Amino acid sequence: MKTLLLSLLLTQITGAPSEWTFNVRHDHTFGACDGQLIVSDESIRYEASDPDHVRQWTYPDIQFFEIVSEQELRIHTYESEGVWKIWMDRDFVLQLNDGALDGDIYTFLQARSPRPVRTRMVFDSGGDEDGPGQLLQAIPVRHDHVLGGCEGMLQITDNRIAYATDNPNDSRIWLLADLESFASTDRFDLRISTRNETFYFDLKVPLNRETYQHIWNAVYGPRIQGDRGGVR
């Protein structure tokens, strides 16, 4: 009932549908197959031309979704790759033959997935059902890589942090509620960690004290309240 009401609410507010159908190509290790990806309230289905690759997952069956571009979606599953790739889980890489992955479907997946959706694109609609939130601070930054780095802009709002860069692999949106940790050893650096990755930033202008406190409260405040509740 909650999922249905949320779906209806999203449709009324954003005009977004409660189900999407895309014609897609599924890339294999060798070759590919064509089919349809159906994204609905209750499940994700891949109706493939190759019967061995037909799948249906509920949202808890997905480790996490990754929006790579407007035309590429990666579904990271719990399925084993088998003896040829021991200890590895199977990823379904789907290339859209028509349509595009946009902020509406990102918000849709984020609302239903038990784990955060990773996106390499920055959408204005945010991923949070309340939208991208109120801007607290925009900071030009350098994102440190193992070798080198890239430059871009951090947009910190009251419910998310978005990193926009020309580097096609490094743009991200993180909901504050999904952050595992963050740290700032001084006003000119910031570390953001999720379950899947950690980003280090050199800040070209300092992080405001108010912005830092807001992020700290969003990430650690609920845990402190939970600990206190447990003691009681």
What is the strand and helix layout of this fold?
Elements: H1 2-14, E1 20-27, E2 32-39, E3 43-48, E4 55-58, E5 62-69, E6 72-80, E7 89-96, H2 103-112, E8 118-119, E9 135-144, E10 149-157, E11 160-165, E12 172-175, E13 181-183, E14 189-193, E15 198-203, H3 209-231
Parallel strand pairs: 5-8
Antiparallel strand pairs: 1-2, 1-7, 2-3, 3-4, 5-6, 6-7, 9-10, 9-15, 10-11, 11-12, 13-14, 14-15
What would you say this structure looks like, in words?
By secondary structure, the chain is of the alpha+beta class. 20% of the residues lie in helices and 41% in strands. The strands form two sheets. Strands 4-3-2-1-7-6-5-8 form an eight-stranded mixed β-sheet, covered by helices on one side. It has a seven-stranded antiparallel β-sheet with strand order 12-11-10-9-15-14-13, with helices on one face. A hairpin with a 6-residue loop joins strand 11 (160-165) and strand 12. It is elongated and about 55 Å long. The relative contact order is 0.11. The model is unreliable at 1-14 (pLDDT under 50).
